[in-house]
Each structure stands twice: as C-alpha cells, then as structure tokens.
Specification:
The chain has 460 residues and is α+β, with helices and mostly antiparallel strands. Helices cover 35% and strands 13% of the residues. The protein has 14 helices and 15 strands. The radius of gyration is 24 Å and the shape is globular. It starts with a helix and ends with a helix.
C-alpha cells in the first residue's frame, strides 16, 4: 500500500474515533521526506503553524529577519471559539493534517498542541541545531528551564518566558528546610499556626470569599502528579490527592467573612498569616513587592504548592512553544527564525508596569531585568512599598542580599511545559462538589479516574 493510501486510511480511522465509536490506536506511516524548497523573490518560504496569527515578535518590522518569507498555517481557522470541545477540535485538525502529510516547517503553538508534533515524531531535536548551526547554546539557558523543555534527551520545542505560581512563608515560622513542602508537612504547619498565634490563619482563608481557596492550594500540584501524559495513564488513588482533599473539607472555613478591625495595625498582619501565595510574572517590581514589600523585608521560605515529588512551584509557559519539524525545507533559516523569536522581548516602557513579560528562560534576558535601572517603573531596583506601623505606605529599596535570594530561587523551580493543565479545570470542578459536601473525596477520585482515563485513552 503506498503512502497516500496509508494516509487516507489513517485519516479515516481517526474520523471514526472522533465520532464516538470505540477509540482505536491509529497506526500510520508518517511523512519522512523533506518539504520541497520554495522561494519567492529570492527568499525561501517557510510554512509556520499557528493558532490565529503570528505572535508579536513577527510584527516587529525593524527587527524580524527579512531574508525569509513566512506563510502561516492556521489550525484554528473555522473553529468556533464558543464550542465546548474547541481544544479537541483543534487537536483533531492538527492530527488530520499531519497524518495526511501536510506538515509545516515550523510550529508556534500552545504546549497542548506543540506536544502533538513530538508525539508523532515530527519535532526536530533542537540540540542538533545548536550543534550544527551555532548561535544560542545550552549554556545560554537557565539550566532548570532547559531541563524542563527536554524530553527523553531531546529538545522538541522552546518557550520564551514562564509564569511561576508559588507561595512563601516567613522563615521564622517555617524553616528553610521546608522549601517545596509536602502536603503532609503543610497540614502539620496548618495545625501549628494557631499555636504560634491564636489569631493566625493558614493563608487568609478566613478573610476570603473564595471557599475553594484551600483546595486549589493543596490540589494544584498533588493533582497534576496523578496524571502521566507520556504513558497516557492516571492514578488518583495513590499519593496525597485523597488525603489533601479530605483535609480541605475538614478545615473548610466558616461561611462568614471576617472583616478587619479599622483600628488594627496593618503592618502586623503579615504575622497573622502563615502562607502567602503569589505569581512571579517577571523579575520586576511586583516580585519584590510580593516578597520584600508584603512580608516587611523578613527572610522567607519558598514553601511552594504542596507536592509529593517536591516540585513545589507551578511553572507554566507564558504563551506558545516554538519548534522546527523534522521535514523542514530550510533548516538553517528556520533555526535563525527560532533564535530571533526566543530572544525577542516586547519593548518595556519606562514608566509603565507590565506584568505580561514573564520570567525569561535565557540568562541574558533575565540579567537585563536584574540590572534594570531604578527609574524604570517596574524594575526590581525601584522603590518597593510596604505598610509601616502608622498604617501608611513607605518606600524602601530592596537589599542586594534579598534581591540575590529572589534571583537564585528562579534557578531552583522545576518547569514542566507539557504538564496536564488542560485537566485542572476538570479536577477543580469535581473537587468543588466535595468541598460543598455533595461527594466524598473517594467518589471524586473515582470520577476523575474514569473521566481522565477515558480522555487519555482516546488521545493515545
């Protein structure tokens, strides 16, 4: 049977699988020959797969390489934004195109779709491009970020920047050895909080309207650890998922919202809460404000989100991943474009706070933020504001020692770009029924086991 017939047969099988019949494992012969070289006006033409349009880096006419012509392949074209199964529809579109032999030269896609190219064996190993063509090297990356993007010793795709969801506690309450604590350790310190101060809360849950605050904190990492996307399996009955959910139900705060006394000394509130969750969206003023400013410059322990594997922080891609396919028609030009995209950063306006840039995966870009002068509004070297004993804000400068501590932490977080983000809303949705007393933790685990196992088997 020739390759064209194999592609048609594989595509037909995929259509049947997506129509609700019993899931099938599609066995197909993927295209291996290179895409034909196409030129226009003396420039090689590269086809780039996207959702919608090219990212901002390619609209920067002053800097984008002009010796290549880019044509886009839009995988979201014709897909209704309001359909509940939009992700599945786009995933099927990509699968159909790849199986039919319509493979682009590059892809710039969210991780959930970028992974498809790697699963099909169509993502080139970018380590090979580093070795053959030079430019960006392994040493240019934050080692932990590069390790996170590596799959089975290969580098199928890159991200520009990341966001980091984490949490801190004052070291005087939670010692440094509890960095990236386990669910059991977090539960033990929950009990110790009242021993430290009878008015102390664990993470401000008694002053929050959100009754799912605790479950989101305890389940974010423990639930992600239940799913193995590589093996297409899940297990919600091992690890700490059930015990964490049971703990959240047992320690659900009262339905009343506790307002603050108008005469309270606000500067002392940081000693009335044990854990402070926050998001690091760059090495910037906000990062300094959420730590040095919010916790009065005291030493902190990055406890992170409770996890069985000491992963701690929840690190996720700030945007798309970019990769080169194994059938790319012009490898050297594609690598040049990839390096440009990776290094590109949106221009930072001097007097504006911009929380959309993220933490760069390249050391050079991170160090630019580290050294950014204090007259930049969102520089970590600018004034940090904190509440003093008179309940007014005072401007302070973050100390060099503290700044270095914040910088070093970024090299310790674990990055998993292909983590099961697509399932988290499903997990939290089911967990909310438990928090409301409508189901038991065991019932929740059983439902999630069935739902996600079915989903994974259909996509394997």
């Amino acid at each position: 049977m020739n390759k064209r017939l194999l592609s048609i047969a594989a595509a037909a099988a995929l259509i049947l699988a997506s129509c609700g019949s019993k899931p099938v494992q599609v066995t197909n012969e993927m295209k291996t020959e290179k895409n034909p070289s196409v030129s226009e006006g003396g420039k090689p033409v590269l086809k780039v797969a996207v959702l919608g349009s090219l990212p901002p880096a390619f609209h920067d006419s002053l800097n984008v390489p002009n010796d290549v012509k880019i044509e886009t392949v839009n995988y979201s074209e014709g897909v209704d934004d309001n359909v509940p199964d939009k992700t599945d529809t786009i995933r099927t579109n990509i699968d159909m195109e790849l199986i039919s032999g319509n493979i682009p030269d590059l892809f710039i896609l969210p991780p959930v779709y970028a992974r498809i190219f790697a699963d099909h064996g169509l993502a080139a190993d970018l380590y090979g491009y580093m070795d053959r063509y030079g430019g960006i090297s392994r040493e240019d990356f934050l080692p932990n970020m590069l390790e996170g993007m590596t799959v089975d010793g290969k580098l199928p795709a890159l991200v520009q920047t990341v966001y980091i969801k984490t949490a801190a506690a004052k070291t005087k309450f939670v010692p440094k050895e509890y960095e990236n604590w386990t669910p059991q350790q977090a539960m033990e310190f929950y009990g110790k909080a009242k021993d430290i101060d009878k008015e102390m809360s664990f993470m401000g849950e008694e002053r929050s309207w959100d009754k799912s605050l605790m479950s989101r904190y305890f389940l974010t990492r423990s639930a992600a650890g239940c799913i193995d996307l590589s093996a297409h399996t899940c297990d919600f009955f091992s690890g700490s998922f059930i015990s964490s959910l049971d703990f959240c139900v047992s320690h659900k705060p009262a339905d009343t919202y506790n307002t603050l006394d108008e005469d309270i000394d606000l500067s002392g509130l940081t000693d009335k809460q044990l854990v402070f969750p926050f998001v690091i969206n760059g090495f910037n003023e906000q990062y300094g404000g959420d730590t040095y400013g919010a916790l009065n410059g005291e030493d902190i322990t990055f406890v992170g989100y409770p996890s069985d594997d000491s992963c701690g922080a929840y690190v996720f891609s700030n945007g798309d991943m970019m990769g080169i396919t194994s059938v790319c028609s012009s490898e050297e030009k594609a690598w040049k474009i990839t390096q440009y995209w990776l290094k590109w950063q949106k221009k930072l306006e001097k007097y504006m706070i911009d929380g959309t840039r993220g933490v760069p995966v390249l050391k050079e870009a991170l160090d630019r933020d580290y050294r950014r002068p204090e007259d930049y509004k969102n520089s970590i070297n600018a004034d940090i504001y904190r509440i003093n004993g008179n309940n007014s804000f005072e401007a302070v400068k973050i100390t060099q020692e503290y700044k270095d501590m914040l910088y070093d932490y970024l090299f310790r977080v674990e990055f998993h770009p292909y983590q099961p983000d697509e399932f988290m809303n499903m997990i939290f949705e089911e967990a909310d029924y438990v928090v409301e007393g409508e189901r038991t933790p065991e019932q929740c685990a059983s439902i999630l086991q069935d739902r996600i196992t079915t989903f994974l088997s259909e996509k394997s």
